Amino acid sequence: SALLAIGAGRMRLGEISALTGATVDEVVQVAEELQAARIVHGERDRIWIAHDLFRRAIYYELSEPRRAVLHRRMAMFLGDREDPPADELATHLDLAGDASAAAGYAWLAGERCLARGTVAEAAHFYAVTARNDTDPRRVAEATARQGIAHHLGRDMARAAPVLELASLRLRALGDLHQARRIDIRRAEALAEDGNAETADLIARLRAIKEEAQDEEDWEAVALALDGELKACLLSEQLPRVNEITAELESLDGRGESYAQVAVNGAMSIGLMLTSADRARAAARRALDHTRPKDWSRLVAINRLFMVLVQQGRALTGEAIELVSE
């Protein structure tokens, strides 16, 4: 039962035998006794603890050193698989106290979660990386990605403080390029969470935009304009929305692919007020500039879907294809 509590999921009897050194017959006998006591459920050669309350009670009954030993044993077992599960390995190694290995697997798990859009899980694993890694660069990057994951999941109460910490860490490393992007997201998070006045938000975003323009950082310019655009839409400053859209159109074609994702994605929102066809075309251009399995593709898909919904195309094949991806 201790191994089941550590594993926190279904386990094969053969796996338990390999982990404990007991024979399969001995494992089967114990499993039958636990099933009779209704502590575990079973299906064919798999068993699992019947209720999370039981699992937690068994888990916390173990001493801390015992838990660490079992977590390490589980990690070693999982690590021998042909395609080791990074998320499970990160969890077990973290709880075993193996900081370096936990950080590496947690980063990999976070990247995989972010690519498939499970942003809450991604935020968790980036936090594990930041907590365990000793490289200041990787800690800063993990903190930034944790904040981005919270931001993508619209969990702004968590996003804002994490993004602030990420910006401080990035600026301490001299990485103003990435810090600007984090500052933009933080400003948006504060606004959406109700912790910033519209005028203050716009002032922050304009300051970031000016800094980015001086550095010819066109992606950051577009992201700052995108943030200001959304703030102006919410506060119904429609003339300024048209001005921002014109600024974005002047940026079309500048910068690398990430810049064009930001430019066209933001432009699509501004154009929704004046030209449905141009808005859709801009959102499609943003998506075309993305790379497979990159987090920016998730943002571009969301933006194009918003445009389609606004145009009454939510049930079209194009929209359904986006949702499926």
Tally of contiguous helical segments: 18
Note the quaternary state here: single chain
User: SS-based structural class?
Assistant: mainly alpha
From the N-terminal CA to the C-terminal CA, the straight-line distance is 40 Å
Strand arrangement, major sheet: 1-3-2
Low-confidence stretches: none
Mind telling me the C-alpha Rg? 24 Å
Which bin fits the share of residues in helices? over 70%
Per DSSP E runs of 2 or more residues, the count of β-strands stands at 3
- Give the rounded overall mean pLDDT: 89
Determine the strand fraction and express it as a percent band: under 5%
How would the global form be characterised?
A: elongated
Main beta sheet strand tally, sense and closure = 3 strands, antiparallel
Return the string of H and E elements: HEHHEEHHHHHHHHHHHHHHH
Short structural description:
The chain has 325 residues and is mainly α. It contains 18 helices and 3 strands.
Architecture overview:
- This protein is mostly helical and 325 residues long.
- Helices cover 76% and strands 3% of the residues.
- It contains 18 helices and three strands.
- It has helices at residues 2-7, 13-20, 24-36, 52-61, 64-79, 86-96, 99-116, 119-132, 136-152, 156-172, 176-192, 198-214, 218-234, 238-251, 257-271, 276-288, 295-310, 317-324; strands at 11-12, 40-43, 46-49.
- The chain has a three-stranded antiparallel beta sheet with strand order 1-3-2.
- Strand 2 and strand 3 form a beta hairpin.
- Helix 11 runs parallel beside helix 13.
- The longest helix is centred in the first third of the chain and has 18 residues, at 99-116.
- It is elongated and about 75 Å long.
- The two termini are 40 Å apart.
- The model has no long low-confidence stretch (mean pLDDT 89).
